[in-house]
Amino acid sequence: MLPRSDPGPRRAAGLFGLLTVLAAVAFPLAPVEQPEAVYSWTAADGDAAIPLLPYQPVQLTARTSCTTAREAPPGQVLLSTVPPRPDVVGEPLRGLLLTASGGAVRVESAGVDLGTAELPGGDCTLSVVSDPERTSVLVDDEPALVRDGDVRPDVAGAFSDVRAGVELRLSTDTRFETTISPLKAVIGAVGVLALLGMLVALRRVGRARRVRLLPRHWWRPRPVDGAVAALLVGWWAIGPITVDDGYISGIVRSTGSNGFVGNAYRWLNAPEAPFSWFYDLYYPWSLVSSSTLWMRLPSTLLGLLCWWLVSRLTLPRLGRFAGRRWVPWFAALAFATWWVPFGLGLRPEPWVAVGALGVFLAVERTLATARLLPLAVALVLAGATTAVTPGGLLAFTPFLAAARPLLTLLRTRRELRPLPLLAVLAAAAVSAVFLMVPDQSLAGMLEAVRVRAVIGGGQPWFEETIRYSRLLDTSFQGAIGRRAAVLGTLLAAAGVLWSLRRTAAGIATGPARRLVIGFLLGTAALTLSPTKWTQHFADLAGQGTAVLVLGAVVASAPLRARPRAFVAGLGATTVVAAIVLAGYNLWPYQGAWFTPTFSTIAPRIMDIPLATIALVAGAAVVLPLLARWTWQRAVGDPESPLPRRIPAPAPVFAAVLVVVLAVEVLIVVRVAAAHRDSYTLTSDTIATLRGHPCGLQERLSVETDPAAGVLPVADGSPAGTLPVDVGGHTVPGVPVAGRTTTPWFTLDPQQRTQALPVVVTTSGPLRPSDGLYLEFGDARQVLERRRITPDLPAQDDIRELAPTGATAVRLAVDAPDTTRALATLPRAPRLTPMTDLLPPGTSALLDWPVAFLFPCLTPEPLPVGTAALPRWRVGPPADNTETHITYQPQYGGPFVAPRLLITERRMPTYLAGDPLRDAGQLYRWLPIGPLARPEPVVTWPTVAGWHQNGHPRVPGIDPVG
């Protein structure tokens, strides 16, 4: 046992730990400052937009004079909090409705008929008072109708058929928009300072074994470091985006206008707490620039840090094998295998990967030095990693993997008595509370958790198999790079655990076993994450890299003298390699643009899948070896060493990893070079470096007036045209019925050079039997005839490039007479650069799949319990329907109420270098009529951390009443 240390630091550590725990308990309960926004409206103001979020007010009072109600014709609307005639495409809300009823007033709220209140003679006032406990209808402050329970109405605005005698007053629900109070800030500061004091005191507690933290010459760069850095920097510039980069970008960039980190796309904009502190770091980062290049730099820096932790600390801890010349290079390959498909972007996984690896190293440092300080640091890191995302819980798995030696260490160290020791360990673990609710109240955080649970969006733990089925499907979820990283590392983990008892191969058995067990426990911990995407495997990138290296080391051990082990390893490698090579090289969204055909199928040589080649080649080696071994066992002959010409499992799988990495990177390079005149992440990077950081917007042009581009008639004039509405503009068209042919139209010079397409817009449903054709020619004869069919049933732009030599085009129709579809006459789009139409700084509603690619547009705010009324909406390609969550109440969409107040008009967009591609959609939001925008009276009272006033109600999910 090591000598006991000075009692002063021991006492200080225990007291500081206890103070940290007390501060962590008090911190969520501490008061916060919550805005109170009150809106007032009278009928004289005219119809008004007050789109609430959440949709119900905390308290509402509506009043109408009895004189006004008696004089109104029966059925006339005295007050409605949702528009009586909203856009039919919008999702309905259920508001407050007061209608005159011949000397009485009928009252409905939240879809509940509260009854009819009779009006006495003479002057009086009818009031409706609604809060979470009850809704009352009062006549001169005397109850006429009372309904207990929560029947508060949804509010999108205030609408009335009268212009006097009606008023409305309401306060919005701002429980999520809190800011830290001075008292809460003091408690947090005390807790953090106490934590630091505890760590300083622990440094002086007890004596420790002297163990070198860093290897000699750790600071010297090596060629392998340069190779890894070059790959990370190159991938930062050209790598595809992840599926959630737009989602996270929208959340981060909305933080400033909203005042907190809320989910700007669903869940009633509930805060991301308790898993959101990395958003708070991204927000000030985004204030420097929101360009894709700048916003992806943190993940690249985290990649460099992760590589440093792996190469400088993790591998030396795992054994002497780290000194072999080939190990750093294989480690670089293993790291690239994990980081290229998973690590770039705004998602939280790079933070978790670094944090989890840091926890493993701190635990190993604890065991190596027999000190408590590294253990406390490990607990602090694990808590901070968990506060990033629910998947961060896997950061605690190193403690489980090292439970036995840690408990032995704690029993042998007597510097701290049990209670101070417990205080120290608890303080380190609960310190994450200061990151989880920095400006939220406990009630607000719990309400956010409740809203997410009620609305849903995830899967329970027992559906974890979905993650692995997605890993093996043919979408980007099961892309070849993801398969290589996950399946290869699982194979390596099995090989390491099987081999450690038989051959050490220069491996430190204890740390290696703890690493592998921690990795496997981490994969199990992913079952606790609420969603089941394969992207979450990236949480294991740091540990996974080290496990892959360990697998290569044990597979490179002299196994030829043990045929059974050799055959088993080679057979398993063959199967995993075949499954990996059966994956497609796919990426989400814009990452899938321009991909060549061989990227949309499994890799192949001479039309033979590489997976088949690998499986057959492996079987050709493994099956004879298996037969040879079986024969020797049957006849009693001793096992003889295998021939040296047979490839070992390690180099075989290394070759597979090289092939996969080359497929991933080189195809992106090929696309970047072949389509440098259009939009790729590479062209985005180059444009940003040249001072044009507006992303995809720089490459898009908008057809602001489709009617302006109708082609001139070559001979004669079109007869029998009908008006077709295209985004609010009237364009001449023809019915898709009967047998007709339009006159020839002269192609625009840019259409003859294929710089612009010929465009026809269809309106109404086209059936398979409806024949609609574009005929290209020279105004005398047809050179080429193409049948055109829209992708969407209601309205779509048909875009076709004219064939070489064509100078004219016409429409031909061969359809049943009963068809109701229309088609516009051919046109050449007259285009305006999108940066001219929406200059940088323009506010727009950015749908989450594309929000990352429009950094110069400002996301629409969600201020003080309301939503903005946007003028513009930027959406993904028309075939992407994932944006519905933002506009549907059952998902808690923040812009449900504004959607009821506008009519949406589509404006076609065209991508430079590829005008046929649907790269994105631009919509103009036009108010349904003149709408006043009342200004709220906002105050900032201080409320307790447990304060709440009812629950926001999710229409269609939460019960009414």
TrEMBL record:
Q: Which GO terms describe its cellular component?
A: plasma membrane
Q: Taking every annotated instance into account, which residue ranges of this chain make up the domain Arabinofuranosyltransferase central? A: 181-629
Primary localization class, coarse: membrane
**InterPro entries noted in UniProt:** Arabino_trans_C, Arabino_trans_central, Arabino_trans_N, EmbABC_dom1
Stated membrane topology is: Multi-pass membrane protein
GO biological process terms held by the UniProt record:
Actinobacterium-type cell wall biogenesis; cell wall organization
Q: What is this protein called?
A: Arabinosyltransferase A/arabinosyltransferase B/arabinosyltransferase C
Chain ranges of the Arabinosyltransferas concanavalin like domain: 34-175
The alphabetical list of record keywords is: Cell membrane, Cell wall biogenesis/degradation, Glycosyltransferase, Membrane, Transferase, Transmembrane, Transmembrane helix
What job does the chain carry out? Answer: Arabinosyl transferase responsible for the polymerization of arabinose into the arabinan of arabinogalactan.
* Stretches that traverse the bilayer: 183-202, 223-243, 293-314, 326-344, 375-399, 419-437, 480-500, 512-528, 540-559, 565-587, 608-631, 651-673
Gene Ontology molecular function: arabinosyltransferase activity
An example of a Pfam family matching this protein is: Arabino_trans_C
Localized where?
Answer: Cell membrane
All copies of domain Arabinosyltransferase C-terminal, residue ranges: 739-951
| Family the entry assigns | Belongs to the emb family.
